[in-house]
Specification:
mainly alpha, Arc Repressor Mutant, subunit A, 2 domains
Length: 212
Amino acid sequence: MNETTPNLDFNVSYDSTLDKTEVYLLKNKNDLRVIKTENQINAAFISLIQSKATDKITISELAKEAQIQRKTFYLHYQSIDELILKFEKSLLVEIKNLLAKIDPSSINELTFGLNQLLMQHYIFYQNIFKARNNLFLTEDCKNIFASALAQHLKTHSSLNQIQTEFYANFIAAGIVETYSNWFEHDSNLKINDLTNHINTIINPIFNDIIKK
């Protein structure tokens, strides 16, 4: 599966240790060399989280895995945490865009869209859900999904804030945990069949919410 690389904002300041080429690359984030390095960093991070927790990953080993210099990493990010935040922001934007496009009352469209996101970034999500030493990333996925879903429900239902957050968290936790188990146990169940099971369980709840 091909991993897409989102456009990023480079917030690091220029310093005297950067040569002219590096300053150019810093300013021109759409340069193919910048995109190539981004892909290398992403791939290295995804590779490393398969075997260790994110708080144990150092910039030196990530740079080595990505086959770049440490200072090249700092042209893109100030820390590993900032790299993780990029993944999380990208996920939030994609989920919000998905929710904006679907029929508000259709859980089928929602799960179909989620499947597309999973397949688009299959390796990343597979490693997040299978790496039990990075459970907080799974929790982050759930919270991001719940937050976007809560905003969606505020617009398309008459639930109060407490009810909205309760339903959003309940649905998000159920869906994320279902996908998590599917990835973790290498299930033979096809993803379309998995989606049908999710729809059967969630549809009555979702339809009831939209009517309220």
